[in-house]
Please model this.
Amino acid sequence: MTDTPQSLKVALLGAGNVGSQVARILTEDAAMLEARIGARLELVGVFVRNPDAPRDYQLPRELYTADAAQLVDRADIVIELLGGIEPAKTLIERAIANGSAVVTGNKALLAQSGSELFRAAADAGTQLSFEASVGGAIPILRPLRDSLSGDRVTRVMGIANGTTNYILDQMDTTGAAFADALAEAQRLGYAEADPTADVEGHDAAAKAAILANLAFHAPFSLDQVHCEGITSITAADNEAAAEAGHVIKLLAIAERIRTEDGTDGAVLRVHPTLLPREHPLAAVHGAYNAVFVEAENAGHLMFYGPGAGGAPTASAVMGDTVSIARRLVRGGAGRTHTPKAVLPALEVGEATTSYMIVLRVADQPGVLAAIATVVAEHGVSIEAMRQVPLAEDDAVYDAHEGTGVPASHEPAESLLRIITHRARERALASTVTAIKELDVVTDVVSVLRVEGN
Ligand code: HSE
Model:
């Protein structure tokens, strides 16, 4: 009979927002954790660049070290909360080579090198867990990997970035311009001083790759995600969305598709998306996250909660840590996610979606017919079309950046809102290009994809 360990050595890499909260929970909830695990979690050290700097949650000075390698070599469980690629990758590889289990929240690293790290952990018979990498506190990766492993997930749509959800929600509810909503997000501490990773969609794209790995049990990486951010969303887009009964969300979408020639694959995409107001994801406000999952047998599921922040993300880190510790107490090899299915990543042009297109058009006979003809020529059909004389709709027109209605404006133009049926993205994009070239179209006010309809 093997001896049950009385304690397990834990190394913490990073003492930022999340790391400080993990240190707090390990310290203040030590008795609860020991009772649940059957062994004590002993925090043997915290790797930080400057051991003398003050911390949000201050541990005894002797626990802080700038020697990460030496700390990793002493641990049964390594919790990596440094973020970024290096030195996180080298330290995780070192821990795995030592046979230690690893918990990480590092979405950028997993989206880039997840397959390599999962394989290394599986070969070493140890465990690499990463619930905190997507959706903060929301338990979403374990349900995709385990609870739904007897089902076939067809689509995952996530509000996976709290900063952009806050900005878009502000634009929708207060009519704020993008720049003002971003400034407010920075003032509240949601957005970084350099907001690029959030507003350009890169953070959501990394999460899309991770979600797809688990949902489809196949390897995907960041470079396979089509990514568009929210920087070009205008008040005119929001007005048009609201008039059509929709709201704009930045969605990370991973879906199984079959191409016209019968190839099965997956399309991964991040872009601003119109959702009907009654869609469950439309009700996700502020900096919250949510992931909407569609599965063949389960139907529709939604996972909702705080997607960032020290304590919420630390909750997910601790869930992984307790799970690993219980397994170490019980004995047996670690179980690491090793995607086995073969599902090629396909170009975004293969996705099916629908578009809402808002145009400024000349108010003259034959305009609607000319536009309908171009749409039909591209194999796209129109679900709804609505024309509003411009004089009745100055608010929308005025809000479109860079344009304005002259005081003496004669209503010789209209706004035309077209919502298409679902079609291949490729056909929809070329339809918009052709529409732009029509003489009767004086401006393309808004083009956004629509989901959930
Ligand atoms: N910047 C991210 C967000 C933090 O706004 O959601 C969590 O990954």
